[in-house]
Protein 1
Amino acid sequence: MKVLISGASGLIGSELAATLSKKGEEVGRLVRAKSSAPGPQVLWNPVARIIDSKGLEGFDAVVHLGGDPIAEGRWTPEKKARIRDSRVRGTRFLAESLARLSRPPKAFLCASAVGFYGDRGDETLTEESPAGKGFLPETGQEWEDACKPAAQAGVRVVNLRFGIVMSEKGGALQKMLPPFRFGFGGRLGSGKQWMSWISLPDVAGAIAHALSNESLKGPVNIVSPNPVTNQEFTRALGAALRRPAVIPVPAFAVRLLFGEMADAALLASTRVEPKKLKTTGYRFRHPDLEAALQSSLSR
């Protein structure tokens, strides 16, 4: 299989590229500037709506992982516009470009997130659950809708709804490690909010599974089968680092520090089940948080 990846140098993209290469697949990269990375490279500029259409031809699948980071900086109006536009406009442009090819790829897998569901308390959420309310759910809905031009051209579209990725190399866990390592870790707010997470190897494994499994289409929850509360996560991370994790951060302090993002991402409760992955037989390498943390920290 010949697979083109956007965001191949990022946390998930680099792990996916390595996983696919080990399986013997040919990996190409959708890039803004050529680099020394191996394999074919296709140039594009989603802001200027420029893409090498000829270079896009011949790929069996495309995995789109781009998007401005959600958890970096306060959500000013400008930041929120970048979050939305980097996902919606770039995805729509790529989907339209794929639809116009003489031989479109068989599959288009596009990043999404469990933020689609919003703050839902203790409700168990599957791919059939409706979107929540607020900035992240609305952005998630538009993000997934932006893939429609490819679907209308007969391409199998998969919306990868990622949970929190457990990796020391980047993402949310990397940001949490410094205070926990110094013994300043603790629950956020009540600690009762659910966190849907997944290990980095399982992210790559689940995407590879979705690439090869033609029955998978539409939204697919890329999360562990065992979500945890923030309190449980705090205890597990403290134990993995052999550090106390008993200094809570009150909800008002989280809101003071992070503004709107606090309620939308840090204090929100999202309990997500990977129903489609389980139904299609995906075997998780790290179904439990403790093993995932040990694996990540040892890496």
Protein 2
Amino acid sequence: MTPNMHDAEAIPEGARAEIDRLLASGDLFRYTAPQDAPVTLLEREFAAEMGVKYALAVSSCSAALFLSLKALDLPRDARVLIPGFTFAAVPSAVVHADCVPVLCEVGENYRIDLNDFEAKLDKAQAVIVSHMRGHTSDMDAIMTLCDARDIPVIEDAAHSLGTLWGGRKIGTIGRIGCFSFQSYKLLNAGEGGILITDDPELVARAVIMSGAYEHMWQKHLSPGDNSAALEEALQRWQNKLPLYNLRLGNLSAAVIRPQIAEIPRRVRDGRRNHDRVAEALDRSPWICVPPKLDQEDRAPDSLQFNLSGMSDDETRTFARIAGENGVKVQVFGMNTDNARAFWNWQFMPEVPELPRTRAMLMRACDTRLPARLTEEECDWVAGVLLDAAEAVMGPLRAFGT
């Protein structure tokens, strides 16, 4: 039987009682309760999970990126360096923050080309590192380059909750980390996002701009060593910043909170499934799954691979055959509306030519690989993809024939 490749994991039963309570009370706004609203508890619990001082839950990861840029108090038209392989929401957040996105090249392994990154860095006022589809760029090199120039780094960790870099949690290495709660992410609320930081000044500005009007910001304070610095910063910025109203609601928080305990299991299962399929695919001369970097412990939420030796028509045929047999494959660069192909971002002030990134995207494939799949279902996925490659390129010949 063809496995269900589409649905996310079911929401844990633990969410149901809290959702029923909220529906009965109508208490859905994060600031209605005098204290310990579900959104407030989510922020505390997520900060504790990540080992940081502060978290702010908002309406999406895009909102978190936008607020992060605004919290940095960048000048209008500041240049923000981002990878050429990311989701359109990232340059959109930069534009929304009245800044200018500057794209750098990305290699065949989906990671930032450090030579191009360094060449463009001196003219940047900030950096967003998108760990696109959970593939971590060399954060040691990036932070060394940025710290030497006092350029702040925001981590777009939408796909990277649970990933480690040299033992450190992705999202905690830059000044601010941003995560997504959209349906296909590790924690699923349909929509939603969160930003984390250890900087009370940054989070205070973000809290107020997120929509903590009047003195609602007081409900972001909690007993502990972190509150004094945060309260002082919040009082200083009261009434001095615009309100963008990007808050998360209590229902979403109630859906997310019981999933936090599931992170280790989902990471383990997702890595098992990814590595099992990757090992099978790498036996094909026409399919390559880029290996992880030495410092990286991945938490995959999907599978990406490159096609080798295929023409454009053969690449399209491969994707069609795989889809007809139950595994939907998108080739990032093969249509005119894919939101991950930089040449489709026509809202940008200028769209550069990135030949290395373009060549990669024309053969880079993406498919769902939910952590809930069994090993047998993963073998089926690998078989469909291998069969599709052989249908296009011909059967593999045994060695020596």
Protein 3
Amino acid sequence: MKKLLIIAAAILISAGTADAKWWIFGKSGGEVGLKYLYVNKVSADETGPKIKVFKETLGADGLIKITGKASVGKSSVGSVRISLDDKGTWTDVKFAENGTFEHAFKPEQGKTYIMLVEVTDTAGKTNKPEETRKELSLSDENIQAKVKETLDIMFTAYSREDLTRFLANVGENFAGDKAILERAVKRDFDALSAINLRYTLNNVAAGAQGRIFVSVTYNRMVLVNKTGTTSTDSGATEFVFDMNEGQLALYSMKQPLMFGLSDPEVGTGVVLGGGEGLVLDDSGDLSTGLVVTKSYTNPDQSFGYNIETETFEDCDATAPNCGGHLLFMPGIPYIAADDVPTSAFIGPIPGKTVSTATQADAQAAAVNQQTTLTAGSTYGLKYGADYYAVEVTSLSGSGGGPYSITIKTKAF
């Protein structure tokens, strides 16, 4: 197996700050684990240790479906097993070459299932199944009607640009900050007209603290006031609601955003395969493409950013071995001593933000194997056959740290 390949993209922090560089490198090996895990289209990562599945949301077959994707770094998936009785018995699960898998079972009312997922690579290395442990139970409570009633009110209020009625269904502890959401929705109303939103309820489940997790598919059409043109999109997204005395209040939502399109930070997380979504830029125009904002602070150690999984992780400054395609290295950078560069290229996109940059912009820009990056600038990035826009919104660090960065990215 080839060693990590490090190429392109150095950021030099301006005079007076720490000497630091960004490097693009090939995918690294990682721990055996799961990239994602869903129970009936609800993310298991967010629900807490218990998941209550509502009987009325099951299909005609009455099945609970567990889906996920195994992650084994440089190796290959050797096996995937699921236990529903706290390791008492295990079932081998069929999986695709890319690690995706699905397992379905018919639950019994009043029974609790202790789920664990075990992934083993072809070298015999195994994940920690205890980290996937969830208690699954089936409930005959009627929750779908309450969820639909709340969503109907919010979608209708937003479409009619009724801010007061819309905010009445947003909780005071909204995870994306209620004040920020209010400002973002106001900007939506200034920039858009003839808002037409339609949705289909996919699934509902309950998790920790009684929170209700909701998955929907949607179709949307809006008129952009600035250009007089209409834009449409469709996809899937997720909401989380708090329940208080029988009333639901929005606690969080994911991207693609249904509300607050001008500020991606009101969303907490991204729906896997949810679609590109619509994004309002600073000029009041729409761009198609999901913008992801990520920030990270590290005391003094190098850290990487994986543009595919949208995550940061620490790595060793003298021998980088962290996942990702961009590597932030305080001090003198380490470069792999052998091997040839991968097909990764980068270059500036003048006069554009990540929201307004197009794939054509990224293709035209991504021609260099190394470039100086600065805060407030946008760049086109090519990795393999894929193109991305990367905007560095802030970058700081001096002396021995801490080093901080905020980036916005968009995949084409």
Protein 4
Amino acid sequence: MDHAHSHRKTRTPKTALICGIGGQDGAYLAAHLLEQGYAVVGTSRDAQANRFESLARLGIRDRVTVESMTLVDFRSTMQAIARHEPDEIYNLAGQTSVGLSFDQPVETFESIIIGTVNLLETIRMLGKPIRLYNAGSSEMFGNTGDRAAGETTVLRPRSPYGIAKATSFWQIAQYRDAYGMQACTGILFNHESPLRPERFVTQKIVAGACRIAAGEQQTITLGDLSVQRDWGWAPEYVVAMHEMLQQPTLEDFVIATGQTSSLEDFVAEVFRAVGLDWRNCVQRDPKLVRLNEIQCGRADTSYATQRLGWTAHHKMPDVARMMVEARQATATSPRLRAA
């Protein structure tokens, strides 16, 4: 990979461009890359208006260069990449909510599909040996029943978000095969952290349980508790993203813990961490059940373990407990509460 640096001998650290640095994964990835000695550039649709609270919470806001770039605008994408000459690009941008994708299918398709093509075309036209990581999703698999999904599992997405991610997955594969481009997709199963906003059900549960424990409210309302997911710890998953781009030949990987739990199990763990019985605190609302919901997400993580040497250390019970601990710490710290 040293040939990537031959055209600029004055700069030794690698430069990484993170599209969508304002989100959970973008912030943790930025922190990890800074630890590895990278110069980190982050983009967001409007960098001036974005407070980058996740970067601030991790204490790295002033160590990252940010700039406005919208992936659906080819000129904007080309200018940012030409200006910063990154060695690696991480595409974490685009609409990220499965539920929202049913209400905003066009925005979802454009931000994910056109955004990915614009990145690929920019790299191809610049002709530089830039390595590209693309954020895929377990939603691409749809319902696999009790079978664990791996890298060769057939894609049968059931949501606009899953369809868009599946399309970007095939786009990456096509550019890799047709043009020899160094690009790959990480097919990540659910991964959570204290940086998750409350519109995600995991953080909604954690926030609700902490408020109930503090006497601020009596109950929280949830939909279908029987759905099953593989939940991991986001700070570990960004390490896998970086590892994927360090391989001699880039390929796609499923990243997950390999353990599946029901939402009810997650709820029980969260309430156990605050010392309460969840059954006294949770109400059900059928209106919160999502269209075309995937009942069970199961992952085969053997290939990532074998090729990348990556395995998840934190499983769902750890994730639930750590999210509660972080939330409780935030409640007692005025500085963090302001962030």
